């Protein structure tokens, strides 16, 4: 059985009450979701919260969770992007769970550890919809068709958003060579 | 980009244990929607069960046949009805965008309710009424379902109001349900002055929890929360009808009255602070979230808007 097929099979088992099947999906994707979250949040501890919220959201929406070629990862990544964008609101639903979990272990300057300071800073300034296509197409290496399926938008929209996002990223990174940019109003509020 | 894998931690182990336990219990944390009409929900959000077979009246919607979304809504309807009720007649399925009115058709002779589920593809406001009863309001995401009592002549009309272009699927069916008990003496006493205090809310919740335990379906998780109690029950608790019976007898009217009080109090507080509250019928969870930016607590709102 391929790793991709395991997700949809395990998900069916989990929904039927097989807790370990949910655990296997967590094992399979936790690191990828955390790595992705670290790119989008400023504090490393927040990324740990994003991971917890993403998997609890997966369970809450288990009947509408979507698979791309049998994999839950695109859905998890999209959800992590959404949660990272509005962490305070997302945390409210799982406040008690987050409080009960042990403290996250300190994460040293994760931007530096990834060696991508300017690129990460630029990524965080993108509007949510642009972050989603950049994440899936560029960082996760998915095709435009797969990204379209994960985001439930037409492939042409993926292409246009990706083109716009690349232009914005290039501009931001170019500027970052000279000055540190604050978040733009558009980036902070557009969803 | 780096391929370094963040190492696992004690926190990860605890989170994994929680996820496994949640799936194993097959539970769902929930807060029932408060209802301002007497002809109200008799069963609320629940989990999916087996898919139904048989004929379905598939109404052509603006999205064509969104089969996976319709399947989600259909399985939700099956689960809500469970083993204690019976689906009757020809169910209706629809997927589309925007506002519309759907006609479920005449009620079969023995039908006494309608089971309806909505699967929202996009998270966005969606308002659903069955006849004159509100069954969904505010932000809609994922799949949710419930049953409504069909006592009025217009109950076969399902009205969906969508202020945007968000996509959704609907599945609905006439149902026959066994009669539910009326409110217990204790619940009636709590409502005698027309108000519900937090102590009365808590006492009614505990009676409901005791009823569920006595029926063999103890609540699976009751996170401590100051204003309200989200809780979890199993699929079997819903499908057996125990939840509907215990809720009607011990908790339903007190729960609804308390939630409406909280909603009205928070809304008044927000308006006084110059913030527009989310629409009437918005879940208590979402409304309380609106207080967060202002750093106000519910107690402060209650003291200021008695």
Could you characterize what this model shows?
The complex is a heterodimer of chains A (191) and B (306). Chain A has 191 residues and is an all-alpha fold. Chain A has 2 domains: 1-112, RNA polymerase sigma factor, region 2, helix turn helix motif (Rna Polymerase Sigma Factor, Chain: A, Orthogonal Bundle); 116-191, Orthogonal Bundle (Arc Repressor Mutant, subunit A), CATH 1.10.10.10. Chain A has helices spanning 3-15, 19-40, 44-60, 73-85, 87-93, 95-100, 110-114, 117-125, 128-139, 144-151, 155-176, 185-189. The longest helix of chain A is centred in the N-terminal third of the chain and has 22 residues, at 19-40. The model of chain A is unreliable at 1-5, 109-115 and 177-191 (pLDDT under 50). With 306 residues, chain B is α+β, with helices and mostly antiparallel strands. Chain B has 2 domains: 27-176, Jelly Rolls (Sandwich), CATH 2.60.120; 185-304, no CATH class. Chain B is 34% helix and 25% strand. Chain B has helices at 10-25, 67-81, 185-190, 198-214, 235-239, 242-272, 284-289, 298-304, and strands at residues 27-30, 41-43, 57-59, 86-97, 100-103, 113-125, 127-130, 133-136, 139-149, 157-161, 167-176, 231-234. A 6-stranded mixed beta sheet of chain B has the order 2-9-6-11-4-3. In chain B, strand 7 and strand 8 (133-136) form a beta hairpin. In chain B, helix 4 (198-214) packs antiparallel against helix 6 (242-272) and helix 6 (242-272) crosses helix 8 (298-304). Chain B is globular and about 50 Å long. Mean pLDDT of chain B is 74; it is low at 1-5, 27-31 and 33-56. The chains are: A mainly alpha (191), B alpha+beta (306). The interface between A and B is large, with 47 and 44 residues.
